[in-house]
């Protein structure tokens, strides 16, 4: 396999990966398939504050069953994704790792993110080592604190412990807070088990606490972001501090409800593309990394075919929520306030 040369993209002024004409993918059964250039898309790169490059579109893997996740990751790598987003709590690190290995693509050509689950906040290194073992890799490129909430790691359930009254078994923040978790994640950088650390589901106030009290500026913040939840103030704030922002649920999560929006359909028609590609292009237009998930090979490939939005259309999409309303699709019951 040849390594892709990088060329500077004129319009976005970030780096494009140029894929070779034909690449070979080694599959599970050790047979090889040919991958034609016409089947793959080029994905621009952004830069993290560590100096590392991150592909501007990542592939989401939440809520995929084991077999779905395997086939989806194989399809994604074949289509040209180089950036995979998973998490310990998704329960698919093992199968995602297997798909990555079976793809035959070199580890150093890929950007892999996984996340520290809330019951593991007080044992971050152990949790990261377990994730690496499941993924079958020596390091991840980005390790995120999944939620700014610490749950009892010795409770009645490994992932979602509850108290006798049925409420979430949370650790009192005066005893252990998300800041303590972040400070313990900073030490992971010395182990080289992760190249960068970051946070997820943090509000602006909480990002500010990290910036005030921690030693390492987070490389990334992963939050729910789409035209119905643009969170412009938080995005601007992070970008001004050198924190790369990632958009989860860029299509509105399960069932992609955003794609029924007439205004997005109109803009898609204008660019001769799909509303999904418009949502994904809008993220990249605002220098945010979208993480679209799909288990459908045609959609997986189509979601990479981003278009260059005009500033006028980008701003129109950013303003859609003013007439259509704000919508948040991912809001687990933690029993405490997470979002502003
Ligand atoms: N940090 C966090 O707390 C957090 C929270 C949520 C998500 N995430 C990450 O972000 C990723 C994406 O978010 P998400 O999974 O919530 O939702 P999403 O990517 O916004 O949407 C996924 C849904 O869109 C459908 N879809 C995808 N492409 C489509 C297309 N071109 N046309 C029509 N439908 C399409 C998928 O269907 P099919 O699969 O059936 O094709 C699936 O139902 C996750 O997988 C995960 O990696 C992180």
From TrEMBL:
The UniProt record gives the binding positions of substrate as 146
Q: Name one GO biological process term.
A: ketone metabolic process
Tell me which residues are marked as the site Lowers pKa of active site Tyr.
115
Entry keyword annotation includes Aminoacyl-tRNA synthetase? no
In the record, what terms sit under GO molecular function? 2-dehydropantolactone reductase (A-specific) activity
Active site per UniProt: 90
What residue stretches are annotated with the NADP-dependent oxidoreductase domain? 57-319
**UniProt KW Oxidoreductase keyword:** yes
Catalyses: isatin + NADPH + H(+) = 3-hydroxyindolin-2-one + NADP(+); (R)-pantolactone + NADP(+) = 2-dehydropantolactone + NADPH + H(+)
Top-level lineage group: Eukaryota
What's the name of the protein?
Answer: 2-dehydropantolactone reductase
Q: Which organism is it from?
A: Pichia kudriavzevii (Yeast)
């Amino acid at each position: 396999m040849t390594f892709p040369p990088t060329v500077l993209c004129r319009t976005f002024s970030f780096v494009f990966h140029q894929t070779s004409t034909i690449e070979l993918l080694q599959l599970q059964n050790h047979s090889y398939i040919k991958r034609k250039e016409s089947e793959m898309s080029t994905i621009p790169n952004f830069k993290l504050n560590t100096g590392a490059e991150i592909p501007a579109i990542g592939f989401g893997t939440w809520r995929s069953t084991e077999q779905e996740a395997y086939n989806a990751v194989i399809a994604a790598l074949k289509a040209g994704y180089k950036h995979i987003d998973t998490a310990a709590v998704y329960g698919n690190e093992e199968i995602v790792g297997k798909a990555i290995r079976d793809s035959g693509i070199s580890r150093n050509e890929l950007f892999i993110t996984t996340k520290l689950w809330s019951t593991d906040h007080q044992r971050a290194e152990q949790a990261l080592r377990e994730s690496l073992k499941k993924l079958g890799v020596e390091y991840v490129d980005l390790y995120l604190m999944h939620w700014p909430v610490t749950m009892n790691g010795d409770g009645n359930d490994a992932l979602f412990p509850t108290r006798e009254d049925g409420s979430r078994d949370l650790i009192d923040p005066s005893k252990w807070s998300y800041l303590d978790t972040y400070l313990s994640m900073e030490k992971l950088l010395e182990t080289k088990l992760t190249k960068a650390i970051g946070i997820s589901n943090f509000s602006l106030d909480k990002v500010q606490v990290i910036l005030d009290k921690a030693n390492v500026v987070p490389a990334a913040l992963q939050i729910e972001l789409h035209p119905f939840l643009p969170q412009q103030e938080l995005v601007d704030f992070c970008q001004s501090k050198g924190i790369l922002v990632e958009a989860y649920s860029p299509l509105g999560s399960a069932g992609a409800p955003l794609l029924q929006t007439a205004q997005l359909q109109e803009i898609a028609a204008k660019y001769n593309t799909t509303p999904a590609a418009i949502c994904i292009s809008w993220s990249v237009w605002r220098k945010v990394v979208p993480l679209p998930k799909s288990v459908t090979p045609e959609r997986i490939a189509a979601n990479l075919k981003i278009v260059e939005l005009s500033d006028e259309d980008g701003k129109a999409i950013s303003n859609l929520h003013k007439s259509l309303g704000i919508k948040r699709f991912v809001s687990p019951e933690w029993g405490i306030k997470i979002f502003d």
